[in-house]
Fold these 3 entries.
Entry 1:
Amino acid sequence: MHIQNTNKTVGAVDLLHSLPILNFLLSLLIVFHHGFTRNVGFIDSYNPLDYGVITAIERYFYNFSECAVPIFFFLSAFLFYRTFDGSKEKYISKMKRRFWSLVVPYIIFNTIGYIKAMVFSGRYGGALDYLLSIWNADTMPLWFIRELIFFSILAPVIYRIKRHLWLSVVVSVALIILSTLGLVGYRSFMYWMPVYLMGSSLTENRISRVCDIFERASSRYLMLLLFVIYCLAAWFLPNGSEKGNAIYSFEFTLFRLVSPLAFSYVIICIMKLNIKVKKLMQYSFFVYCMHAPIITLVTLVYSKMIPAFYGSELFQFFVVIFLTYVLCVILAMFLERYLSPVWKILNGKR
């Protein structure tokens, strides 16, 4: 990949141009998050030796990849409110677009997940079970899309909240408290509202201002330090133990809330570098939607073909992630080339 340094002033346009690269990195982290081979839950110890080398490595990647979802919500809010003025006409236009880009793919891919559950797990509960599965997204990790649908429906309300800083702060603090107490679930749009409000308030002037601050060496080093601290903090997330424990729950909430801020160093670096967008980076949405059944399939084939050896689980971890992403991209390219109408629907007419 050719990287050429530039000294131009960066802003919202550069962020838009960088989105395929950011989406590629984030979708890869999502695959990492679901590719673990061992139980990576917290065992009341922060000593890596207590987990063993393989589990410790997988646990770190699992924890660090928690950053993908909040950044996705942050960027999604920025994209939505960049062109939304609160008018009825714009709202209707946005809803029509979101029907094809979110609702239709959500139903199709969850149906694929339900079929996967029928084939591999023997699940079949009839029409009602199928509809509940679609609503709960319990066969595919697509709840993110479901919550984006809710955010889109609530756009007029969110638009009015984000226009007043004090109201955004009050709503965010209230929801953070409810989330910490376990009254708002992780897979609820209310849990992600604070991050979403942050993204919705990201205007072109604010992006330019942050980039100007980045030009100062002291600020750049400070942002780098924040990112390094964030990367180290990922290890200390008590994953699997946050339910019913307010302190642990708050740690997770705080980690996710600061994700866009901590990653601002990476985002601005990508914006400032002339990185050519590769074709495989344009299939991030499809990778996100299809990675779960592909992981299941690749893991099944891998376990049948590759004998166990010392460190084989760690080897499997990285091989399955790599093959999953590659196969998703190959499938996407095949659909795009040979079944274009089907591809457009699956990809949300993107």
Entry 2:
Amino acid sequence: MKLYPKHIIDLQNSIAFLILFYIIVISPFFSCSSSVIKKETTQEYIFTAESNILAKSKERIDNTATYEVYFQLTDTTQCIEISVIAIDTYNKRVRCGYIFEAEVDTSRFPKKPVKPVYSEIAKNFDVNWRFQSNIVFCSDETDPLKRLNKGNYRLKITAFSDKMFTFTIQIKSSVPVAFKK
């Protein structure tokens, strides 16, 4: 069989394609598979309280009874996972909305506010009231108000009713979480 220049070019293109395929697709598997990569270990922190014990928030969600739970991250972390479960007096799980907020560092403000200022970081519902049972929030290094630094945080929680509920807050974090009573 005689190879013509066209066949040689096709053969060279095929070899070039295979080499490029190996470099792009196969080699990252070898370069990224290292036993040195450290995986953050997380621990779950749980806080349970009845609505009649929790502080009522002046900032209501959907104009219904809203409660506040405060906690502290003892160090900076990359991500946390938050889940809030609301149980009514009949021991049934009900829909629950919550907003995750961080206390703003006002130490550099020329005029200090009387009460702490909180900035919304995330919530478990969207503008159409579609809910998520839990949220995973990761720090945004480009936005100083959306970083998970050591400090104080607040959850505003509602079950969309004035009845009594038991709220269970679960936070998974790679740094210790201290709930404040």
Entry 3:
Amino acid sequence: MKLIVFFLMLFCSSIECNNNHIPHPLDPLTPSEFNLIRTIILKSYKTNNLTFHYIGLHEPDKHLIQSWLSSKTKTLQPPPRQAFIIARFQKKSLEIIIDFSTHSIISTKIYKGHGYPMLTFGEQTIASQLPFSYKPFIDSLNKRELNISDVLCATFTTGFAAVVDLDEMKIVSYYDKYVIPVPKAEGTEYRASKMKPPFGPKLKGIGVSQHDDGPGFTIQGHSVSWANWVFHVGFDIRSGPIISLASIYDLEMQKYREVLYKGYISEVFVPYQDPSEEWYYTTYFDCGEYGFGQSMSSLQPFTDCPANAVFLDAYYPGSDGVPVKIANAFCIFEKSDVSLVVRAVSTVGNYDYVIDWEFKPSGSIKLGVGLTGILGIKAGTYTNTDQIKEDIYGTLLADNTIGVYHDHFFTYYLDLDIDGEANSFVKTNLETVKVKDHKTPRKSYWTTVKETAKTEADARVNIGFKPSELAVVNPNKKTKQGNTIGYRLLPGPILHPLLVNDDYPQIRGAFTNYNVWVTPYNKSEKWAGGLYVDHSRGDDTLAVWSHRDREIENKDIVLWHTMGFHHVPSQEDFPVMPTLSGGFELRPTNFFERNPVLKTKSPKPIHWPNCTSQH
């Protein structure tokens, strides 16, 4: 297992999470459970050379969860609580399942396929320190007249690089081919405390007030109740936030109705577009290689979240299995437009990703991502665009500073259970019809033609090529007017991969070939890029599973939606980019008999001092 390390002065942010909860089958693992896992495994593998790469909840079968939830008195015994572990031992990847009730290992398997598990912070840190005691690297710094105390090893430079074997934890190859001018520090300051005059106009902002009687939502452990919604907030070291068991109360039916069994970001694919020797490999899989969960940052009150926010902590296992706390990993708050937001921020390398789940009384769920942080930049010889006579694979942002073109593909896993598990995927195509009877001046109109996907091949969609509406419906239930109940997908910012299909990064990222996939529910099919993403060969991805072309009509199905951005950097993105936001919506379509907001009580009116009328 090897990691390429390049060298550059880079701004990094640290991560650091509170976990009061009642027992629930989908609650994330606790610090005591992490410690128990560590004890059990190290008792079986008496060594200091075992590294924990993934520890997460081994979820009970779906029907066990549903049975437990339907037991109104909760007298039914909870499903068995288990953990799934991927550990690295003697250059092999072990898959281990532990049962907490018996405090024992119930399954062990050696992975024999392609790819490696998620990188740990520990091995990345050690690998990045190795060059500082490596003489050829020190000679390279001296040749460039760089002070070793000013250098941080990372992955964004040109000219010299090392390859580290992570199992042996040693440098196995090194080269220094050419010298590129190091970009100047002038004009790169972004910290507010270090800014110097002149300043722009002072902004007052808008204050957020809390209800007199406290928040309008309640949190019991990881279960949240607000307005007509109930849902569960989970956490995973790889995916980060997980929203489960989202149900909405139907006033007319006098009961909660299922909408979403589980949703999370399955993968974030970030291919940079520089094919040169030092950059060709920079095609990151932020969840599968680096971990969206372990990269979550501690949220800052009044900065990352408004004054009325409530915070939750989270825990993940370090490479030694010891639990690490992320204080304020989540914040939950109400917005003035009457919605509830669950927010987290993952800092993966140079990018900050603001992840929002927003619930509305209308029944809609909005899923948003905001991108900010520091661009992936490379050094160059140019100071003006007039000097450029070749493809530099990016935008010249400052002297000797190139912001490299790249993409951000966000692939969401959405196990929608619309009023039950038996669902179908329906494309409502909008088609033009020519008027034939000429009774009016109109010559055409458009109408809808519904198409129900029978197999996975029918449900692959590239949005934008043909006008249509996409929905997951329950074909077994209808409204009083006879319409099939469902939830529509209102897509996010749409992008399509521009790499050729046989390019290695695109083979691994083939799950981005379509904006929408639908698969039958399979407990093991969780990660769009496969379980072992690092150095994978694309043989265990969503694209591979889908080509089995299984039946999906009136089945328990999973919707996968990819949205994102092609990013052409501009000078306004440097040195820190303003937030670029996008998102999509899951919106009820004939799910209710009428608009559910009509009988929602409005918040108390606020009397604004600047109103000219009191009407």
